Amino acid sequence: MGVGGAALTIPGAILGRASKGLAQVSGSGAPKRVLFWITPHGTVWNAWNMNVPGLAPSGTSAAPLSGLAASSWPRIAAPLQPHASKLSFVEGIARTAAIEYERAHDSQGGSFDLNRHHFGEAHLMTCVDPMQRSGTTCIGGGISIDQVIGRATTAAGRWSSRVYGSRHGHPYSFVAAGQESARVEGARQAYDDIVGAYNPPSDGGGDTRADLIARARGSVLDFAAREHTSFASRLPAADRLKLQRHQELIRELEISFADSPEDSPAMCSPTWSDLGHDMDRFARVMALGLSCDLTRVMTYVTPDLAPVEIGLPAATDIHQDYAHTSIQGSSTYRAEGERGMIEYNRFYAQRFAYLLEQLDSIPEAGGTMLDHTAVVWMSELGTGNHDLHDLPIVIAGGAGGSFRMGQYIRLARDTRVGAGWGHFVQVGPAQNRLYVSLMRAMGMENESFGIESSPTASGGTVSLRGVIPEIMNG
């Protein structure tokens, strides 16, 4: 059952459901959606941060992007300028829970994997402590936010989520602690996954191949359920739990084979094109999947770029030679490293802009599909030299008016926390709260996601609960 089954999430009361009748649809009646778009190595802040007229230099403030001339957009962000009215740049969101994890374990030596890439990837979408694994790298310690929201928005005929693209060494999406979500790596495979295979009926009539497959699927699922029930009593408790999780995945797979829900927009028109970069092909596939209402939650992990794609020598090691040397003020800084990583991130911004074009080209309920989708661009790190305390966040589309658009939002870094190796940093609102904001936008009643509080440098605690009101409407 491969991709179709494993990509569906684990049911469970602790995950929360969207409240009946609430914001799974926008005020116009169009479905709300979330698409996570993940790039590696953070950003280069002096080519991402904006000096928007009316924006205070510190504290919490916001200013409209319409006040920034096209020529004044920083180089990384400039490709997004045509979409300014449907963007929210958010400066100051922190990986607070991950910073505390590092601080608590930096004395453990070789017994803990504290490579910030590794636990940054494990933590990005889970917001809980990574699962340490003897003899190898750490991995996600809990279910990820895409799977939680997908679980709350699934319905008959609709997948709970889809996970697409690459791995930056480690997975980002998890159905449970240590259990990576199934991922479709190729754009053409993702397209085939969406549209399926169809053989027209023969001249003599009778069942099509699709009819036969549909009946066979149901029979196999029934058989699997009976086998699980008979076998479970012979297993120890821990193995019974694993088997139960597998049964739940199969049950969700069965639901996905049912007829499409009545509120499906059914606006899709499947076509395939090889044109463009693989990220562009995936952009078209994701727009197709959302327009067909086959899921309302997607995660896309971009591929690492080849040096020649951004004008660097083919033998370049982008990670070592450029990412690690890209931040002014660090002991490893090189102007060439900075330049290379600016071009690296600008290339991603161009591809992100293409995705927004695809979503914005699909009319829907008096607006476009982009208007009803929250497309969240984020990274496992704050910067290429492994800072965690600030994340580059762009929210596009607004999820049917749930988020403020056309704004550059600067959040106050007003909490001092202890990081690893005796360092202290000033941080803004926790990333957990961004995810709570997304859950609330999708109609869920959750007040927290992941770790709920973290120590401050003064000996107190900072709450990681609740929404970030500055990024939301109302």
Quick rundown:
By secondary structure, the chain is of the alpha/beta class. It has one domain.
Approximate strand percentage? 5-15%
* pLDDT averaged over residues: 85
Low-confidence stretches: 1-17, 197-204, 215-219, 259-266
Rg, nearest Å: 23 Å
What's the β-strand tally?
Answer: 16
Oligomer: single chain
Distance between the termini: 43 Å
The rough form would be described as globular
Strand order of the largest sheet: 2-12-3-11-10-1-7-4
Organism: Sandaracinus amylolyticus
Protein name: Tat (Twin-arginine translocation) pathway signal sequence domain protein
Pfam family, one: HXXSHH
InterPro entries: DUF1552
